[in-house]
Specification:
The strands form two sheets. A seven-stranded mixed sheet has the order 3-2-1-4-7-5-8, with helices on both faces. Strands 6-9 form a two-stranded parallel ribbon. It has eight helices and nine strands. By secondary structure, it is α/β, with parallel strands linked by helices. The longest helix has 21 residues.
Length: 244
């Protein structure tokens, strides 16, 4: 049976970390593991994670970063560490608030198992039949405008690159995660572009609407991060051209 590890980046999540949801998932899915990466939290996040780890030895891993380096680097560190572990056939990452439930990963893994060409599956908050997507309307509108611009600028044909639910084959780790990401928040774009650079197309990436997603408060993105996005986009595009 395939082994799967999901990376969960955490920064000051003590007030909204649903520990029961993680426990229930691991109790039923014994071939899954979770690697929490604490990104320099200064609240009680680490204490909560340490308690979880004692309950699930061998299924929960904890990586602690001394300073806050951002979501992209926290995920990269976690993915690289779990890849070096050598136990896992598939890796992925989900947001700590579980806006998308962990159970989504099970279907993503099955899809990868059935299609050898696919390397990574992106969750999508696209509203389709039999989905429950609870969004803030203003945030949704801003997100759609952002996605349209991102797709145009990078020639990407995905509805939603920023949904916090991704699962991929562990073998792509050296290709995608060896180098640091340029952006704290647009690293999902960098993943697509790095794969495209190796494979020559985007056929290795598939977008799947998640059946459930809930907009939760407590976003860690700052106003200064938004101001940096145009500069980071240009830097990402330039870095890809240098690899061609």
């Amino acid at each position: 049976m395939s082994k799967v590890c999901l990376i969960i980046p955490c920064y000051n999540e003590a007030s909204r970390l649903n520990t029961a949801a993680f426990e229930n998932f691991l109790l039923t899915e014994r071939n899954y593991a979770i690697c929490f990466v604490d990104d320099g939290s200064d609240d009680k996040t680490v204490s909560l994670l340490q308690v979880l780890q004692t309950k699930f030895p061998g299924q929960i891993f904890l990586i602690r970063m001394d300073i806050n380096a951002g979501k992209a680097e926290a995920i990269r560190k976690g993915v690289s560490k779990m890849y070096s572990n050598g136990r896992f056939d598939y890796l992925g990452y989900f947001d700590a608030d579980l806006s998308t439930p962990l159970s989504v990963a099970i279907n993503f893994v099955r899809l990868l198992q059935r299609n050898d060409q696919l390397q990574i599956i992106f969750g999508s908050r696209r509203l389709v039949k039999e989905t429950s997507i609870k969004k803030n309307y203003l945030r949704h509108l801003v997100g759609r405008c952002f996605s349209f611009f991102i797709n145009y600028y990078f020639t990407i044909s995905l509805y939603d690159t920023q949904c916090g639910a991704k699962v991929f084959r562990s073998k792509i780790v050296p290709i995608v995660f060896e180098r640091k990401f340029i952006s704290r928040w647009l690293f999902d774009i960098e993943i697509i572009l790095r794969l495209r650079n190796i494979c020559g197309n985007d056929n290795t990436v598939k977008e799947i609407p998640v059946k459930e997603w809930v907009n939760k408060r407590g976003s860690k993105i700052r106003f200064i991060d938004l101001l940096r996005l145009p500069t980071e986009m240009r830097a990402i595009k330039k870095s890809m051209k240098n690899l061609e």
